[in-house]
Design brief:
- With 361 residues, the chain is an alpha/beta fold.
- The protein is 52% helix and 8% strand.
- It has 16 helices and 6 strands.
- A 6-stranded mixed beta sheet has the order 1-3-4-5-2-6, with helices on both faces.
- α7 links the parallel β3 and β4.
- α4 packs antiparallel against α7 and α11 crosses α12.
- The chain is globular, with a radius of gyration of 23 Å.
- The N terminus is likely disordered.
Length: 361
C-alpha cells in the first residue's frame, strides 16, 4: 500500500487491516464495500462494535424469521461461580477481538442439570465476546424440501458473515440424529448438514457453536466429539454458603430486588438444600412481590425469610442425579469441576451414569 492509502485507512479504522480482514472474512465484495462506505458516509470509525452492528444487519436481512439476533444485556461479570469456565470464555473473547481466530475451539458444549444457568451463561458471553450471536428459530416446514432449504440458507449466511456465534438451546432435541424418524429423512438430512458444517475446520473461529443441554449423553457423538464441540463446560448447583451468597447477589441485581447484603447473607446460610439459580431468582421475585404488597420498595429480612420458609423444593430425585452425572461424564477439562467432583473416578462416573439411565430412560 502507498503511504497515502495507509493514512486514509488510519482515519476511518481503529482496527488494523489484518484484524479487519479476520472479522470480515467470508463477506463478498458487495457486502464489504457496503460496510466501509456506510462508515465513511456517516462519519463513523471502523471498530469491532461497528462491524458487529453491520453483521447483525446483514444476518437479519438474509435470514428474517429463521434466526433470532441476541442483544447482549449482561456480561460474564454477572455470572456467579464457575470461575475457570468464565476465565476460559473471557480469554476466548479476547482472542476474537484480536482477530486470532485460529486459536479458538470449533464449538462449546455447555451442560448441567436444569436451572444451573446454561442459557444465561451463553447470553452473558454474547455481551463479552464482541461478535454477533444468533439463536435458531423454527426453521422447519411442513412442505417437502423447504426445511433443508431453510437450513442451507442459514448455514450459507453464517459462513458469509462469520465470525458469528450460534446458540442451539435444548440441543439434544433440536439437532436431530441420523435416524429418519418417520419424516421422510428430513431430520437425518438436517443433522448431516449440521455435522458437516461443524466439522469444517476452515471455519474455525468464524462460526462458534454453542450446544446447550441438560442431557449431553443424548447428543450424538458426531456433534460433541473433538473437532466439532471441543470444549465441554459442565455447570452445577452451588455447594457452599459462599457460592450460594454469590448467586443470591447476582440474582438480586438481575431481578432488580433491593436487598441489604446482610439479609442476603442470612438467606444464603439458611438455605441447606441444593438450590438452583432459577430457584433463587424465583425466590427473590416472590420476596419483592411481598415487599411491594407491603408498601415498601426494599426487600426486608422478614419478606425473604417468609418466602424461604414457605418454599417447598421440587422433588426430582434421581432425575437430577442423572443430569449431574451426564455433565460429569462429558467434562473435557478437570479445571471446570468444583472441588467436590474433582477427585471422582471417571469409570465410577460412567458406571453410575449407566445405572441411572437404565432406571430412568
Amino acid at each position: 500500500r502507498s503511504l497515502a492509502s495507509e493514512l486514509a485507512f488510519d482515519k476511518v479504522s481503529k482496527l488494523t487491516a489484518e484484524t479487519l480482514a479476520e472479522l470480515t472474512a467470508g463477506l463478498n465484495r458487495v457486502n464489504l464495500m457496503h460496510v466501509v462506505h456506510q462508515a465513511v458516509k456517516n462519519g463513523q470509525t471502523l471498530t469491532g462494535s461497528y462491524v458487529q452492528a453491520m453483521k447483525k444487519e446483514l444476518i437479519e436481512k438474509e435470514c428474517y424469521g429463521l434466526l433470532e439476533f441476541l442483544e447482549p444485556k449482561y456480561s460474564l461479570d454477572m455470572v456467579s461461580g464457575c470461575d475457570t469456565a468464565k476465565q476460559w470464555l473471557k480469554e476466548d473473547a479476547r482472542l476474537v477481538q484480536e482477530g486470532k481466530l485460529d486459536a479458538l475451539p470449533m464449538g462449546y458444549l455447555i451442560c448441567g442439570p436444569v436451572g444451573t444457568g446454561k442459557t444465561f451463561l451463553s447470553q452473558c458471553y454474547t455481551g463479552t465476546i464482541g461478535i454477533p450471536c444468533v439463536k435458531l428459530l423454527n426453521f422447519r416446514s411442513q412442505w417437502q424440501g423447504v426445511t433443508e432449504g431453510n437450513w442451507e440458507k442459514i448455514l450459507n449466511v453464517l459462513k458469509a458473515t462469520g465470525p458469528v456465534g450460534v446458540i442451539i438451546d435444548e440441543a439434544d432435541a433440536a439437532v436431530g440424529n441420523r435416524s429418519s424418524g418417520g419424516d421422510s429423512g428430513t431430520s437425518a438430512r438436517v443433522f448431516s448438514q449440521l455435522a458437516s458444517q461443524m466439522g469444517d475446520t476452515r471455519y474455525r473461529g468464524k462460526i462458534l457453536w454453542f450446544l446447550l443441554t441438560c442431557r449431553p449423553d443424548l447428543l450424538p457423538v458426531d456433534l460433541k466429539r473433538q473437532g466439532r464441540c471441543e470444549v465441554h463446560i459442565p455447570l452445577f448447583y452451588p455447594a457452599t454458603p459462599e457460592d450460594r451468597l454469590a448467586l443470591f447477589e447476582v440474582m438480586s441485581k438481575k431481578t432488580g430486588a433491593k436487598v441489604a447484603p446482610e439479609v442476603l447473607g442470612d438467606a444464603a446460610r439458611a438455605t441447606t438444600h441444593r438450590m438452583s439459580g432459577a430457584e433463587i431468582e424465583g425466590l427473590l421475585i416472590r420476596a419483592r412481590r411481598r415487599a411491594l404488597l407491603g408498601g415498601h420498595e426494599e426487600v426486608r429480612k422478614e419478606d425473604l425469610e417468609s418466602e424461604l420458609s414457605a418454599y417447598l423444593p421440587p422433588q426430582y430425585g434421581e432425575e437430577i442425579d442423572l443430569q449431574i452425572y451426564a455433565a460429569l461424564a462429558e467434562c473435557t477439562d478437570k479445571r471446570f469441576l468444583p472441588a467436590e467432583y474433582k477427585d471422582l473416578d471417571r469409570s465410577e462416573v460412567a458406571r453410575r451414569l449407566a445405572s441411572l439411565k437404565q432406571r430412568w430412560d
